[in-house]
Amino acid sequence: MAESTTILLVPGAWHSPDCYDLVAQQLEVAGYKTDKVHLPSFSPLNHHLDFEADVSQIRKQIESACNQGQKVIVVAHSYGGIPSNEAIKGLDLKTREQSGLPGGVSHLFFCCSFIIAEGQSLISAFGGNDLPWFMISEDRLEVKPATPDEIFYNDCSQTQVDSAIAALGPHSYQVFHSRCTYAAWKDVPSTYLYCLRDAAIPISVQEKMVKETAEGFGVATQVVDASHSPFLSKPEETALAIRRSAGEDI
């Protein structure tokens, strides 16, 4: 099973896809192929006004794996879940099979990510207000996190925190206002990884998205006692959770 599955790793805002390296190593040892997405809205030369470039990049990499006959598990962290949902439209396994095409997205794995309905954006999911730790440029094109050590890495070692902060980059702010037109979790089997110590998306908000927004769509849940960055603080547990979502009995 593993060799026929590609796990596509989509980071959240401000993060390079290299943040997934510890998890990717675990998955590759278990026999899976992995691929990482560099979001165009992360540290761009010119800031993007919507999430279309992110959607396009994710979709391109999904299609590449599908065309090799691979089942694709999309692992999305934080903001990454929003363009990932949009990118999956028409690329799920069932639709591809019905069209006589190889491969397809077999599972969507939310790593303390956003589950939002059609017509919603990241900002609207928070009631239309910027979060207090958003540092937004005067032209409202760029956003940085004010206290990443507290918000993203509150259970990491100081060495991990220093390394992670050094790897952060500015993000295109306006992508947070892009509204989804498709909710992949309605059509694709999905798993949500609850992160109990998350200071960016508190566990109460995570649970509300799963139990209210996605009510009735059978989103499975797993739990890790970690911050907003379980791929750094709990890479083994995160990799095992992803493998379970792939159907492994472990």
Automatic annotation (TrEMBL):
InterPro entries, per the entry: AB_hydrolase_1, AB_hydrolase_fold, Sec-Metab_Biosynth_Hydrolase
Single Gene Ontology BP annotation: antibiotic biosynthetic process
AB hydrolase-1 domain sequence ranges: 7-239
Protein name per the record: Alpha/beta-hydrolase
Species for this entry: Penicillium frequentans
Upper taxonomic lineage: Eukaryota, Fungi, Dikarya, Ascomycota, Pezizomycotina
